[in-house]
Specification:
This protein has about 725 residues and is mostly beta strands. Helices cover about 0% and strands about 45% of the residues. The longest helix is centred in the middle third of the chain and has 10 residues.
């Protein structure tokens, strides 16, 4: 026993037995005090009684006591509620007792509860390696202002709710069985400038629990957050910033944060992982590390301002989406071991300016057959602005309203005043258009195919953005007729090659390029000696002797209709009209009305198709033929772009990208005539992209785009 009473001038009591590590008890270095009593010591400020066999401690009437260490004893309960000025309390490792004769050690934990009621000045509490459960300590009695709290290796379980904001210094709840950790308030960094032993300051450690839920009701700001070795699947804290986040051996599949410098994921078990973080922090050397996974198939950092730094030893990883406006692969280049052993990788999506760096990384690590492009999304990476609206045709001259029809495929041009920053698009089939920009001043101009026939309001407009903070500018456009002018058009285009003995498919398209509502007939003549009609996707009005007739009604200005036609081609063994590779199939399409038509030459369309033995389902065909005749130079050439999903899974999105040779064609004259599904068109320089968003094209499914473009005056080839 040890007793200190009525010690009026005593300022410190110490019985400190430490091992070589200065922390844990050594069976050869210990005391054997079973009871400690301290009372009526008005100037006592420090008590250190460590690594003894202390089973009970009574401390009272010590108003100046600020520092109390009872580490490495055998306490089962401790009541500190009378020590109202206490600032430092260490009760850790109360798990060792020694036999009084043999000195043999027993390291079973003993401390089950600690009463800290009223200790408003306490800023350091270490009660790690104990038997403390949720009833053994009232965590809401603590003052979380610059608090060092270590309750690791205890029996805390289920839900921990802290009804207080936290000025975080160091909180360690690791190695318990906590499932829910909730802070009803903010967590902010402490302003203290020193670090606890063996740790960083501003740390929240929740590793090695059963954590599935982590919530902070207000802002979070810390240096280190660790949730490693937990079954947690998501961290959705858009107001949380942590310099480093450790989530090794978790089930994480989604993390949304305000920001972080480093996210470390070693051995996560999920199949998919996505990080959403808009704010950019850190620099070279900081980033995301994802390593040593067995199940992970997809990494999505397309909404992250934090770059990938290391992606290694992910045995089943197939897809990386990293189109995010930052240098994921450029910054990774040169760091050995940061992209090795992802041997199942199939696709990487990055920004256009990162494609070369991604290819270099793949080559550096010896990866083959990995596709790289920027088409995992159809919007720019990072933050951007949108200019959007809907184009409608006012057919009843009372202003555009909800009852008016969309004006399909109106071309619009955007420019910031420089030739290097301009582009074009077409209004979609529903009349909607979109441009994506960064900050700057922008002018949008409408470019109708027959501009004299329409009054467009506004014909051009301007807007400006002072930043790229996802601003949206909306400008609807109203088109009205200027007079009355018919202008019909018809085109026949092949959707497959023509092979002897097989089905061949074609698309017959009719359009209204005028400003009146049209009704009439479309007739297709074909060589019925060489092919037999099988089906049409639209009902036909009549069929006879190689002629198909369709009626159409109330075709609005710049609307179009199309039908897919299937014929079976004669075999080479047909006794009357055999068909062989190299033979020509002739088609002739006509549309009425012809009277008062602005461009009667496109009311008729002739197409000759060469029979082949095989063909590529992904091709581009010029309906005017391989060689442009002299009479066609400078006029519109018609092209159909066919594509097929040759994979085994459904294709969510498809992009058709074409580079137009300016020596052969004038890209400013390109007009979209028809598409098999809703399509967004983007023209930049001499490149055109047809983007089919959410087309969901099934395996073996087909799609197509029909367009026309004028050849330049000295062109001789298609």
């Amino acid at each position: 026993k040890a007793s200190f009473k009525n010690c009026s001038n005593l300022s410190e009591i110490k019985s400190d037995f430490r091992d070589s590590h200065n922390t844990y008890p050594d069976p050869n270095i210990h005391g054997n005090t079973l009871e400690l009593t301290v009372s009526d010591c008005p100037k006592l400020s420090i008590i250190t009684w460590t690594n003894n066999n202390l089973a009970s401690a009574y401390i009272a009437d010590t108003p100046e006591l600020k520092h109390l260490e009872l580490r490495g004893n055998s306490l089962t309960n401790f009541d500190a509620s009378q020590l109202t000025n206490l600032e430092y309390l260490d009760l850790s490792n109360n798990q060792a007792t020694w036999g009084p004769q043999t000195g043999e050690a027993n390291f079973d934990s003993t401390l089950k509860s600690v009463n800290i009621t009223g200790l408003t000045k306490l800023n350091h509490l270490n009660a790690s390696h104990q038997l403390i459960d949720n009833q053994g300590i009232d965590l809401n009695k603590l003052n979380y202002n610059d608090l060092y709290l270590d309750l690791s290796y205890n029996l805390l379980s289920n839900q921990i709710i802290l009804n207080s904001s936290i000025d975080l210094f160091y909180l360690d709840f690791s190695h318990n069985t906590i499932t829910d950790f909730v802070v009803n308030g903010y967590i902010k960094k402490s302003e203290l400038g020193y670090d606890p032993p063996n740790s960083l300051s501003n740390v929240l450690n929740l590793s090695y629990n059963q954590l599935i839920n982590f919530k902070i009701s207000e802002e979070g700001n810390m240096n280190v957050l660790s949730v490693s070795n937990n079954p947690i699947t998501s961290i959705d804290l858009p107001d949380l910033y942590s310099m480093s986040i450790y989530a090794d051996n978790t089930d994480l599949n989604y993390v949304r944060l305000k920001g972080t410098h480093g996210l470390f994921l070693d051995g996560i078990t999920s199949e998919n992982f996505k990080l959403s973080m808009k704010n950019k922090f850190g620099g070279r050397g900081d980033g995301i590390q994802i390593k040593n996974t067995q199940n992970l198939k997809q990494i999505d950092v397309s909404e992250s301002a934090l770059p990938l730094f290391a992606v290694a030893n992910n045995l089943n990883l197939e897809i990386i989406k990293a189109k995010n406006g930052i240098n994921d692969f450029s910054d990774m280049d040169g760091y050995l071991g940061h992209f090795n052993d992802n041997n199942n990788l199939k696709f990487i999506c990055v920004d256009e300016n990162e494609i070369a760096s991604a290819i270099d990384i793949l080559n550096q690590y010896g990866y083959n057959n990995v596709n790289i492009n920027s088409y995992c999304s159809f919007t720019p990476s990072g933050s951007f602005n949108t200019i959007t609206g809907t184009v409608k045709i006012d057919t009843n001259n009372n202003g555009c309203d909800a009852n008016d029809n969309p004006f399909q495929y109106l071309k619009l041009k955007i420019s910031d005043g420089t030739n290097s920053n301009s582009g074009e698009t077409f209004a979609q089939s529903n009349g909607k258009y979109e441009f994506y920009t960064r900050q700057g001043n922008f002018n949008i101009t409408t470019l109708a195919e027959n501009p004299a026939l329409f009054t467009i309001s506004p014909a051009n407009f301007s807007t400006s953005f002072s930043d790229s903070n996802n601003n949206v500018f909306t400008q609807d456009i109203c088109v009205t007729a200027n007079g009355n002018q018919n202008d019909a058009e018809v085109v026949i285009a092949p959707l497959t090659g023509a092979r002897p003995g097989f089905d061949a498919t074609y698309k017959l398209v009719w359009r209204n390029k005028g400003n009146t509502i049209l009704s009439g007939k479309v007739v297709l003549n074909y060589d019925n000696n060489k092919m037999s009609f099988q089906s049409s996707s639209l009902p036909y009005a009549a069929i006879s002797n190689g002629s198909l007739e369709f009626n159409y009604n109330n075709l609005k200005p710049f609307a179009n209709e199309a039908t897919e036609l299937t014929f079976i081609i004669n075999t080479p063994t047909n006794q009357t009209n055999p068909v062989n590779s190299g033979d020509i199939l002739s088609f002739n399409a006509q549309i009425t009305p012809n009277a008062n038509d602005l461009t009667p030459e496109d009311n008729n369309f002739k197409f000759n198709q060469t029979v082949v033995n095989s063909f590529d389902p992904n091709d581009i065909t010029c309906m005017e033929g391989e060689i442009i005749p002299t009479t066609a130079v400078g006029k519109y050439m018609h092209y159909v772009v066919n594509f097929e999903n040759t994979g085994t899974a459904e294709a969510e999105n498809i992009v058709v990208k074409m580079n137009i040779d300016p020596a052969e064609f004038d890209i400013n004259t390109l007009q979209l005539q028809n598409a098999s599904a809703d399509v967004t068109t983007v023209i930049t320089g001499n490149q055109v992209e047809f983007k089919f968003k959410k087309i969901k094209l099934k395996s073996g499914g087909h799609g197509n785009v029909l367009l026309k473009i004028r050849s330049v005056t000295d062109s001789t080839r298609r």
